[in-house]
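TICKET: design request
STATUS: open
ATTACHED STRUCTURE:
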């Protein structure tokens, strides 16, 4: 290969890599068990300030880091755990992984009270109510959306500064990137956003998700509602 052809080929390859990175994002999220609802329950159950402080520190010490990989050109994303620390035993609720394909389907797995669930459904069943309420989170101006008919009482704060219909776990299908997702049992918040090409091994993993099977979102809700009722009646501290 002569020098001229080599330069042309190198230019094409470099341009392809730049174009790909412009369409792809790697977003870091931090998930914690200490949601607003959990904090309120602790405050109601703690008989003295020192007890409240101790249990708050225990729960707030648990954190799971995730990566959300987005390919905006293909309109798909995958949410994968990176690492976990701060809790000796398994948490009552934990997101394992999720996949979203706009206008096609979504799939997610979670661990709820020791039972693993696999859910597969269509985006139209993510019934979001977008409100007029706004909130500044870090450098993001966010709008509030409520997932209707959801027994976990999920709320998403999304930013149209990034007009990407993606987010962590079940936070998809909104007109902007989800900066904060919170329900009765956990919260997940953006830590870092990078416009960067998705690693080949992750691309391969994404390709496997459309073939996966799971129960519908409504079937999932039906199964977890009795478990949620039991948890709401339990004392967190004792």
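STATUS: resolved
RESOLUTION: sequence designed for all positions
ATTACHED SEQUENCE:
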């Amino acid at each position: 290969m002569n020098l001229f052809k080599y330069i042309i080929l190198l230019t094409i390859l470099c341009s392809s890599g730049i174009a790909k990175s412009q369409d792809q994002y790697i977003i870091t999220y931090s998930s914690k068990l200490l949601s607003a609802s959990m904090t309120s329950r602790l405050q109601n159950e703690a008989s003295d300030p020192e007890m409240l402080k101790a249990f708050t520190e225990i729960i707030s010490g648990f954190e799971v880091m995730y990566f959300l990989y987005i390919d905006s050109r293909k309109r798909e994303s995958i949410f994968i755990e990176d690492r976990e620390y701060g809790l000796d035993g398994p948490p009552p609720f934990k997101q394992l992984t999720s996949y979203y394909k706009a206008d096609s389907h979504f799939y997610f797995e979670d661990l709820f009270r020791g039972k693993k669930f696999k859910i597969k459904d269509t985006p139209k069943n993510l019934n979001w109510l977008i409100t007029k309420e706004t909130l500044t989170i870090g450098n993001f101006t966010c709008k509030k959306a409520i997932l209707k008919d959801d027994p976990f009482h999920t709320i998403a704060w999304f930013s149209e500064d990034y007009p990407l219909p993606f987010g962590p776990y079940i936070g998809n299908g909104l007109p902007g990137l989800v900066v904060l997702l919170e329900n009765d049992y956990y919260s997940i918040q953006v830590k870092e956003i990078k416009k960067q090409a998705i690693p080949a091994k992750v691309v391969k993993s994404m390709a496997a998700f459309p073939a996966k099977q799971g129960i519908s979102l409504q079937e999932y809700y039906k199964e977890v509602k009795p478990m949620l009722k039991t948890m709401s009646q339990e004392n967190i501290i004792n």
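CLOSING REMARK: The helical segments are 3-23, 36-45, 49-60, 200-208, 217-233. Residues 3-19 have pLDDT under 50 and may be disordered.
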